[in-house]
Amino acid sequence: MNTNPIELLAHRPPFRFVDVVDELIAGERCVARWQIVGDEPWLAGHFPGNPIVPGVLQLEALAQTGGIALLSDERYLGKLPLFGGAEAVRWRRVVRPGDEILMTVDMERLSARGGWAIAKASVDGQETVRARLMFVLA
To answer: Half-sphere exposure of 108 toward its Cβ, with a 13 Å CA cutoff?
Structure first.
């Protein structure tokens, strides 16, 4: 692949939550990072004086990481992966400005219409969230 794998995503700033891809196995696995700088506009309201990265944005970042793994496989190039659901979601650590989230997504099952992935994120070796993610292809 000659391009930056992040460019495979349809997402663009300010709603792209993957900064760097560290590992990519097409259609199987993606390991990526998202740096929380502190000037993200949604931090001002979540929560004033006590900024915390919303859990749903952490899930979205994991879904985007999985999207990179999926779209790097030629069979799915040009498709639009959409969030289809999440199971067994557990948040375990608060994420704050200055934290860098390490995200790992392993594809569990793929088909022409969608699939499942196991996703987890951590900061400094401490798990922040884990989930089983379902996606559909449009």
So the answer is: 11
